[in-house]
Amino acid sequence: xxxxxxxxxxxxxxxxxxxxxxxMAKFVEELSAAGVLLATGGLEPGGVRVTSRGxxxxxxxxxxxxxxxxxxxxxxIEVRSREEAIExxxxxxxxxxxxxxxxxxxxxx
Length: 109
Description:
Blueprint lengths: L1 E7 L9 H16 L3 E6 L5 E6 L2 E6 L9 E8 L3 H15 L3 E7 L3
Antiparallel strand pairs: 1-5, 1-6, 2-5, 3-4
């Protein structure tokens, strides 16, 4: 099963430091070696929103009003169960500290 883990920026999200970078590199290396990590990355804070209504397509540049709801980074993992995805997310949150991560199963090929 594939899961997308998306981390949001919150008021309590700490600034990254050398310790955080080192611990995250070790965690990413571990997930990669286990064959669990399919992709990971940080996301630009603004982005572009594309909406449609009937035949009308609207493109809006970010940042958007609720920046605290923006996804700051993601990891796509392939694991045996939802519980395993939650456990990896618990470990991730333990490394990065306070904040929020949303996990969603990815369907399809």
